What we know:
The protein is α+β, with helices and mostly antiparallel strands. 67% of the residues lie in helices and 10% in strands. The protein is built from 9 helices and 4 strands; from the N terminus they run αααβαβαααββαα. It has helices at 3-26, 41-51, 53-75, 107-110, 128-196, 202-237, 264-286, 328-395, 400-434; strands spanning 79-88, 113-125, 290-301, 311-320. Strands 1-2-3-4 form a 4-stranded antiparallel β-sheet, with no helix packed on it. Helix 7 packs antiparallel against helix 8. The longest helix has 69 residues, at 128-196.
Amino acid sequence: MSVYSLTSFLSRWRWVSICFAALCIITPGCPAQAQDGVRTLDAFLQLARQNSPLLLDNAGQVAQVRLDSLRRRALQRPQVTGNAAAVAAPIIRRNTTTGDGGLGYDEAVSNGGNYTAYVGATQPLFNAPTLRNDYQVLANQGVALRNTGRLAALDLRRSITDQFLTAFAAQQQWSYSQSLLRQLRQQDELLRRLVNGGVYKQTQYLTYYASVRNQEVTVLQNELSYRRELGTLRYLSGVIDTTLLLVERPAPPTHRQLAGLGSITQQQYVLDSLRIGLARRAIDLTYRPQVSWVADIGLQSSTLQRFGNHAGFSGGLVLSVPIFDGHQRQIAYSRLAVDDRIRQGYRTFLTRQRRQQYDQLSGLARASDRLLATIRQQISIANTLIEAGRSQLAAGDISILDYLLLITSYRDLQFSLAQAETERLRNLYALDYLAE
């Protein structure tokens, strides 16, 4: 292929690129098109909280605990029931004179039958300690459920933030590859003129041309990677949208101190301790004497014919005193003691784990700052070298291969910068979670 035919081909390729860029400007979904949509981390977090079925489920369970409290209050009130029974015990005698033989219970036992229809009522007395303990159990369950909801919200925030940072890193790589492609294309026309002028050989220019085409492939690959990560972010957040939008750079969170025993994760073990104490109190209350009043009013008769003539009522007190249950009380105490030891083991391990993780992340954050400073310094030097190489390239004082090496080094540094910035944000957000 001659230099002139190559120049003609590249010119046509340039016009195709220009037309494609113009099409992106007027076509929805292209990155250059500014559209309204979810772009910020806070917006994704807000939508994720609104759409999360787990958080909605937790809120429903909290509402159920409130209803359980009302139900427990209702059980303390008088319980009124209606009862009816018709039980016949027929007696069939072979000898009606002597009463011997035949079938049937003794008259003293059966009286021929039992017919009743009455309304009964009962209510426990002196049950205030049990009632208070039950209310405290339900209140502790409500607090535990709300804390579980906070833990679920924290986990949701962590997963959404992590995916947002992954999508942002993919977007940065796409942006850097596009910037590099623009730089390579800017030098393309100059190099073609230099090749036509005999400053560089055609084979050297073909190497440069192949690098430009490879960079175009890289841009497309980075775009697909960003589309995939953005789609995953929308999937996790419950956002129904397929428009290609650029997310905004997230602001780094404030570096806060490690949360102690009042943290969300530690609070669950505090609530477990209260639960075990209330369970022990409930065991003690079950072994107290129970007193209830009972009353009924209605009809009761041994014969159906005289059923309507036997109306009456009764009332009294019922006392229940536990005497022996096979040492179930001590077994229940031992079970709660084992539960408390398990709780203490988890809590001790989590406390040490959180401290170790906080110290490690703090060290990583400081190392990330030093790494970013070094990379930015290297990028500044590489940018200066590229400017110098561009001037030497125009004068024919540097080979095209050496210039490509400078461009490649600059591209690698940009990718390293994007990865380092993303890792720094991950560490800072992880430290922020430990402050909850």
